[in-house]
UniProtKB/TrEMBL annotation:
One of its GO terms (biological process) is protein transport. Keywords: Cell membrane, Membrane, Protein transport, Translocation, Transmembrane, Transmembrane helix, Transport. Its main location: membrane. It comes from Streptomyces scabichelini. Coiled coil: none annotated. The gene is yajC. This is Preprotein translocase subunit YajC. Belongs to the YajC family. Pfam families: YajC. It is a single-pass membrane protein. GO terms for cellular component: plasma membrane. It is found in: Cell membrane. Residues 101-161 are annotated as: Disordered. It comes from the Bacteria.
Length: 161
């Protein structure tokens, strides 16, 4: 047998070894995270429930899901141990603001102008925002005549026979 025929098998075995090794590392990290849980930590179960750790035993965890609601879970059912800031943000809606130097956005646009004086309101005539070309202004009389002719025919008369 030559090395060329054995090469695909060697590559396949090497890939399987690398995949199992990375999966084993993830399992060890998850087990370490579960072992490091302390009472008072915020957790998320694999089912998506958020609770506070009340008591940690060898294989089980007692969780406080709300006032007077204690639930007993297997340690393997804990999906993630959350930081205090993240737990408070998700469960209580409390944002811990680390950046206090951010600019404050005003409620109205008047404070964004450079002067505090009100705008000059001497030009009280309405502004025409329609588009008009020079050709449109000279041709304005012809459509009015056509409209008048149509109005005269609108009382029952029609051109169609």
């Amino acid at each position: 047998m030559s090395l060329v025929t054995l090469l695909p098998f060697i590559v396949l075995i090497g890939a399987m070894f690398l995949m199992t090794r990375s999966a084993k590392k993830k399992q060890q990290a998850a087990a370490q995270m579960r072992n490091d849980m302390q009472p008072g930590s915020g957790v998320r179960t694999i089912g998506g429930m958020y609770a506070t750790v009340k008591e940690v035993n060898e294989d089980t965890v007692l969780l406080d899901a709300g006032p007077g609601i204690d639930l007993l879970f297997a340690k393997n059912a804990i999906g993630a141990v959350l930081s205090d800031d993240e737990y408070n943000r998700i469960v209580h809606g409390v944002e811990h603001d680390l950046k206090t130097d951010e600019a404050v956005v005003p409620d109205d646009a008047s404070s964004l102008t450079e002067t505090d004086e009100p705008a000059d309101s001497s030009d009280d005539k309405p502004i025409d925002l329609g588009k008009k070309d020079a050709a449109d202004e000279t041709a304005d009389d012809e459509p009015k005549k056509a409209d008048d002719a149509e109005l005269k025919k609108s009382d029952g008369e029609s051109d169609a026979k």
